[in-house]
Design brief:
This protein has helices at about 45-50, 90-95, 115-120; strands at about 1-5, 10-15, 15-20, 35, 55, 75, 85, 100-105, 110, 125. By secondary structure, it is an alpha+beta fold.
């Protein structure tokens, strides 16, 4: 359920709005603020909702206190928004003394540190895989 105006199938046509989904081709200008079951969330709405779902943790919160399966892949963001993708079991080891600041939605966690530039090799994203 959601508002027509936020639906990915709602399009502005001059001075009206047209539906490209359940009410295909119909002028939905009168009901643009209405919630409908056919609602399909647009990326902008999704991003706004995720940002509002952000969880801020108290000081001294560590990854080891989270109940996440050790084989689950998570994404750790530093204070510069650089990202390391790794399994939870490695994250617990690597970031055992680092505060978790917030959950940014899904499996994304921001920690109170800066990743080493040498480790990141000039990139903003690093994937740590299982050893073979």
């Amino acid at each position: 359920m959601g508002n027509c105006k936020d639906c990915e199938f709602c399009f502005k046509n001059k001075d009206s709005y047209i539906c490209a989904d359940a009410f295909y081709g119909q002028n939905i200008t009168e009901s643009i603020e209405s919630e409908k079951e056919c609602y399909s969330e647009s990326f902008d709405s999704f991003y706004k909702r995720i940002k509002s779902d952000e969880i801020i943790y108290p000081k001294n919160t560590r990854l080891k206190s989270f109940k996440i399966h050790k084989s689950k892949r998570i994404y750790i963001y530093d204070l510069n928004k650089k990202i390391i993708s790794l399994k939870f079991k490695y994250a617990i080891e690597m970031f055992k003394d680092v505060d978790v600041i917030r959950n940014l939605g899904f499996d994304d966690y921001q920690v109170k540190c800066f990743f080493d530039e040498e480790l990141m090799k000039g990139s903003n994203y690093l994937v740590i895989k299982d050893p073979k």
